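Hi V.,

Quick status before I head out on leave. The structure for the redesign project is tokenized and pasted below; the design run finished overnight.
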């Protein structure tokens, strides 16, 4: 899984043309991965202000609004890819546009037990 991180402050300083270019680049890469059979799915996440965090302590759920931690970067979306090697996943992650302006984390998905 590619976990795509974004920083709203970094995104906001980009021009509309730069933002559109990055989004177009991501769409083209997703289309390429679809054509190669490596794309298994993915989506952007809703604005982080719509997030909720649930923690259960002593049996009582505590629900808080917004991001889970105090950080400038947040998880903005994800892509599930099905590729042959970790090296290929790293290659794809390096090509994802957000890797240039923030970060893309890769992590294997554990198979069901």
């Amino acid at each position: 899984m590619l976990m795509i991180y974004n920083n709203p402050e970094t995104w906001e300083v980009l021009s509309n043309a730069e933002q559109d270019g990055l989004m177009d680049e991501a769409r083209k890469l997703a289309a390429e991965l679809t054509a190669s059979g490596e794309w298994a799915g993915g989506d952007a996440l809703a604005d982080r202000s719509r997030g909720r965090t649930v923690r259960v302590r002593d049996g009582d759920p505590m629900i808080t609004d917004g991001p889970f931690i105090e950080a400038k970067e947040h998880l903005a979306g994800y892509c599930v890819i099905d590729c042959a090697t970790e090296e290929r996943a790293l290659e794809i992650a390096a090509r994802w546009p957000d890797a240039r302006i923030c970060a893309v984390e890769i992590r294997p998905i554990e198979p069901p037990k």
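Above is the designed sequence. The mean pLDDT is 90.

G. will cover questions while I'm gone.

Best,
W.
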